[in-house]
Amino acid sequence: MANEVIPHSLFSEFDVALFQSGKHFKLYEKFGSHELEVNGEKGVYFAVWAPNAKSVAVSGDFNSWNKERDALYVRWDGSGIWEGFIPGLANGEAYKYVIQTYSGEQLEKGDPFAFKWEVAPRTASLVHSTWYAWQDKEWMQERVIKNRLDQPWSVYEVHLGSWVRDPESPETLLNYREIAVQLVSYVKEMNFTHVEFMPLMEHPYYPSWGYQITGYFAASSRYGSAQDLMYLIEELHAAGIGVLLDWVPSHFPGDAHGLYRFDGSSLYEHEDPRKGFHPDWQSYIFNYGRNEVRSFLISNAFYWLDRFHIDGLRVDAVASMLYLDYSRSAGEWIPNEYGGNENLEAVQFLKELNEAVYSHFPHVQTIAEESTSWPGVSRPTYADGLGFGMKWMMGWMHDTLDYFKEDPINRQYHHDRLTFATVYAFHENFMLPLSHDEVVYGKHSLIYKMPGDEWQKFANLRTLYLFMYTFSGTKLLFMGGEFGQTAEWNVNKSLDWHLLDYAPHQGMKQFVAELNSLYKVQPSLYQKAFEASGFDWIDAGDRENSVVVYWRKGFDAWDDTVVVLNLTPVVREHFRIGLPYAGEWEVVFNSDDLIYFGSGIHQPNIHTEHLHWMNQLQSAQVHLPPLGGYVLQRKKELKGVNSAEEKAVSAV
């Protein structure tokens, strides 16, 4: 049967040169399948990189999956790009590439640049458009402010398929548009500033949570089309909510139809398993030293920021990229050229990624999930940093959870776990995460990590959240934590929304909503989130009482707040605390309020005394609630009374 493919190319010589040098960052405009018109005929152009292939053909419904008829043409320039135009095709066509290797293998591969895939377990790619009539111009203009690092970042982490399901059909995943109706109103009600979606790229194995990707350029068809996802993002933007997306440039699965040994060779991964195989996840590591692979990955980052208006990328498993010996024993890894364990190629890739992203999309952020002490993760590349905007503060998370797991009677012996984070809190731009990893695989839900009876569990968790939201850094909370989900997260079912029929869970939900609101309106809690000048301990050493007092500072001293936490179930009457300014202070937030399922202990306005305490010139007695805390602020109507004193204190 004659070849139906017409020679055609979307690549200029400059495109190819950029691709081969690792500097082409919009490859999604060239590779893949694109509906277009050539010489007056409508059809689809295909282009794929397979430099070690003997031949490449396109098979699909249109040719009854014939593996030979529609052969692509290899470019003359040695780039390894196969391409061609097939007339008569249109969006919606299912197809695969049939790759003949020089070793005699015949491989059937999905398109690495496909914009859509069939719903798993089917594995064909689909010709698809990403055109969308965006209506989020207002947000895209406003995010120059809202996505800045001196603005509030309270992120709601969501796994889309298990956030909510139809109770009448719990096995069925909802469409992006169906989820939008509930998710947007809920996130707005809860006062989160951003949503972070766990990976929404196409992945064959649903229980991988999206972290084993085969279709890097495709929104998962489990939930609908690219346009359906764009609608969800647009609706979030219309509500003033930013959208972050988990992105996985660290590894990919070994599925036969995916990137693995794409043209019969280790094209995207390393040939040597000591560099190319990931022992933890039984997956394959990208070859960051290969220019074309770097172009592929950075183009993928650009794709989501460009076509989907994503406000930031949370980059998964950065630590596994940085270290050649990550999860490997002696003899299972290859040192770098200097004999060290640093993956120099990955380091260079991450720097190039961040430089490219911030130069082309200056109003977004990149966030590293990086769990080691690698220096300068969130520092500029010109200062020898990796160039991320933020980094997850894993040490804070582990220390804080370990502290709160302790019975309050023992907390005096573990006090340093609560306070140690300030030793390194300003080395990076830290985000404080209570993520999905902490509520799965036998680790218990957040509420069941807490000690004590039901009341104490909820009081402990409220106090943990209050500490998190008033500590330096931005915030991230995994779905369900905001209302005290009791069961561990299960990817195969909805959150337990019925718990909101019960007072403790209602109280927790209202508490988090109002804590988010406090965080957004109190500049001292976010303006200097990453600066040592924005945080001071007033008292970090009261082990015996398990009480901490600290001072958060904004750009204006009148916005300053003082936080007092009592980490025991003992009510502390007439407890004296130091305060930085004289005058009248008020409780602007009380974690023990009855509406939150607290005990209802109330603290009236506080009038300071000129009595030196906790290294402060002023002090006052307060009535501390059990397993709870206050956020205090000077009465605003008194502003200006102590201007000379506040200037002196601020100068110190």
Automatic annotation (TrEMBL):
It catalyses: Transfers a segment of a (1->4)-alpha-D-glucan chain to a primary hydroxy group in a similar glucan chain. It is an enzyme of class 2 (transferase). Its EC number is 2.4.1.18. GO terms for molecular function: 1,4-alpha-glucan branching enzyme activity. Pathway: Glycan biosynthesis; glycogen biosynthesis. Coiled coil: none annotated. The active site is at D316 (nucleophile), E369 (proton donor). Signal peptide: none annotated. Residues 157-519 form the Glycosyl hydrolase family 13 catalytic domain. CDD domains: AmyAc_Glg_BE, E_set_GBE_prok_N. Keywords: Carbohydrate metabolism, Glycogen biosynthesis, Glycogen metabolism, Glycosyltransferase, Transferase. Pfam families: Alpha-amylase, Alpha-amylase_C, CBM_48. NCBIfam families: branching_enzym, PRK05402.1, PRK12313.1. Monomer. Catalyzes the formation of the alpha-1,6-glucosidic linkages in glycogen by scission of a 1,4-alpha-linked oligosaccharide from growing alpha-1,4-glucan chains and the subsequent attachment of the oligosaccharide to the alpha-1,6 position. Belongs to the glycosyl hydrolase 13 family. GlgB subfamily. This is 1,4-alpha-glucan branching enzyme GlgB. The lineage of its organism: Bacteria, Pseudomonadati, Bacteroidota, Sphingobacteriia, Sphingobacteriales. The gene is glgB.
